[in-house]
Amino acid sequence: MIEKSIKLTLFLATGAFLYLLIYNGTLETYIHPRFSYLTLVAALGLFLVGVSYFRADGDLAHEHRSVAWWGLLIIAVPVVLGWMVPARPLGATAMNTREVSVVGLSSISASGSEDLTMARPSTERNILDWINLFQNTQEWSGFVGEEVDVVGFVYRDERFGSDELMISRFVVSCCAADGQPIGLIVRADDASVWTDDQWLEIRGTIELGEFNGLTLPLLMADEMVAVEAPAQPYLYP
Fold this sequence. Notes:
7 helices; CATH 2.40.50; alpha+beta; about 35% helix
């Protein structure tokens, strides 16, 4: 009876954990929102399995005991870690282990979306919108003087001067594991005030300038304001 109670508790706790991720929006820290319904199905399935296991007779429970314990161990470890370790979106630390592109999206693209992006006011474009425009346009001079209003976190590496930083976001196609960092190079007199992973809202204009030996579109900051990380920290292609 004790074994059955433990297994029942694990099934129900796992289902409750998955449902809580959906309910409080934390699930989007791990996977693309379009997969939320699959997680909900999994949570309901675990509830049903737990209830059916509780209602099963003793012989059935004994017959599947060895398989159930191994399966539950596999389920229990990530759930325990999930309860103990707070969910945090990918940030500057994760960028240190990935290739950081300053002019494009590498293998990620949003082909066909350029017209829609251009149709939006420049201050309503996010970092991904700007990167897509720069990637799909050969003549960047047409963007000079356009106003920008974007939100992201601060990133720096050895390429950046004291008056420079990258305002960054992660682009997620499926889950956090495939997250691709992107960003705009920002130039501002007080750039050194801001530390890695600090979320900022930056307003300014696009200018062409030199960075790391390349001529690139730069965001010349007029205003930099500390903000909380958005409820949806990732951008989606």
